[in-house]
Design brief:
The complex is a heterodimer of chains A (266) and B (304). Chain A has 266 residues and is mostly helical. Chain A has helices at residues 3-20, 23-49, 56-61, 64-68, 72-93, 95-102, 106-140, 152-179, 182-201, 205-212, 216-223, 235-259. Chain A is globular and about 65 Å long.
Amino acid sequence: MTANESTLWASTKAEWIKFRTVRSSVMGVILTFVLIIGLGILVSSLERSHWSQVSTLRQATFDPVSSSLVGILFGQLAVGVIGTLFITSEYSSGSIRTTLTAAPNRLRLITSKLLVLFVTILLVGEVVCVAAFLIGQKIYFGVVPTASLDNGAVLRSVLLAGVYLSLLGVLGFSLGLIFRQSGACISLFVTLLLVVPIIGFFFPQSWQNDFQRFEPSTLGQSMFSPSAPSNSFGAWTATIVLTAYVLVILVIALTLFDRRDAGAVA
Amino acid sequence: MIKVDHLTKRYSGTLAVNDLDFEVKPGVVTGFLGPNGSGKSTTMRIILGLDRPTSGSATINGQRYADLKEPMREVGALLDAKAVHPGRTARNHLRALATSNQIKRARVEEVLDFVGITAVADKKVGSYSLGMSQRLGIAGALLGDPGILLFDEPVNGLDPEGIRWIREFFRTLANQGRTVFVSSHLMSEMAVSADEIIVIGRGRFITSGSIDDLTKTAKGTVLVRGSDHDRLASVIASHHGVVHEANDRGLVIGELTSDEVGQIAFDAGITVFELVPQRASLEEVFMDLTADAVEFGSKTAGTS
């Protein structure tokens, strides 16, 4: 192992220690579980108990995959907060200075943090999404149509749901690195995911379709639906577009981080 | 060795550090002295690669800090004791630092023990007093057993016992041949803890040298108490001395040494009860040196 590889590995191990030894990340992970699985159970149960009253049109277009994963709507906020706090807490406490004196190569430091964040949220996301899906199907069984992971499109959707969460974690982190302030970042994150779609709703109908498919939340829907919803991208295209968004913001964040003084905190 | 070479730092129009040039050598405690806002912390942050210099450079053993592979093995620094995540325990904080520089875990226990916070090592740092945080910061600086140590205003917030401990600690580190660079805005503190000092004001270099050198250049006074103050004052004046003050405690005399004052009094047949050279006017030396360089000097009341 060359010196560079070993120092990257060392600083990644250090960031992992830092990640798991503060309450905010541990609580964030627990919250992700509770929101996605809990809301999944709630919505799936309601779906089952009210199935007979649902219109035949809705019954025909019902998607057991995305409806069992409906908790992602809130779970995505939890992972965004995990990502944001992983960097903004360094600024609010001033510990970024201690961190940087121990690991002065800034690109390496951020690579380490991203490795920890992305891998952790990806694992958590996959576990929680598979669990929410399986529990949902169990609840639907016998009354509501169900889906199975044996189906390639279904498996893809459930796995991409975990990828969606980890991409949003990185998005939250990148915004944190740009603004260095928890409150501003979390508001912006919520705006991007929940408010932008509402704004899009007020656009003329002819614009709406074009606008909506580019919204991060619609991209997410496309990623975890077995068949693409109307007027939106296919799952893989949506994954690429969302990754591109995140990468652009990450590159801006890295450029700023490399130029800025770490002593002065915004 | 730390080398600062024509270092300049400008923050949106304000010149925080202005063409600073100095070296810090191993084996001695070097004080970095200047009034508040004179650029000490900025200089230290640039040495540690936290802030980018506008021009010039700062190097550690010839290398930029950012290029050091495992910097904690070469440089230990304590800038701000509270710059630690309040929700993490001291032990976990030090473990993360040690891991990042591939320092063995046993070393964490050693430094915890050395600064005397082993008993509270599993408490969250947010609950620490400033003094305990300072100790944790020192533990962090020592983790990599570095040859160079930087401390920014380390005695701030310490109780007298802590201050004495830290002075002896600096002395020990220097005696071990390490480079010890300590900033302070208090001349009196530097007088007891530093061997060499570098004085800056408004980001500019003012002077450097040993404490003795600096006080020699300063004009000391002599306090003398004797049998006849009136006559003593007149003979002093005839020997080109200056009487700054005269009261029951005695005369404060300038421009003459205590040897000279004693001889003059003896020749004039005046009994001397007390003769004290007042060289401890370090604070005055400092005030003189930095008088033009205080950023926020106190102004006399009135319009200005």
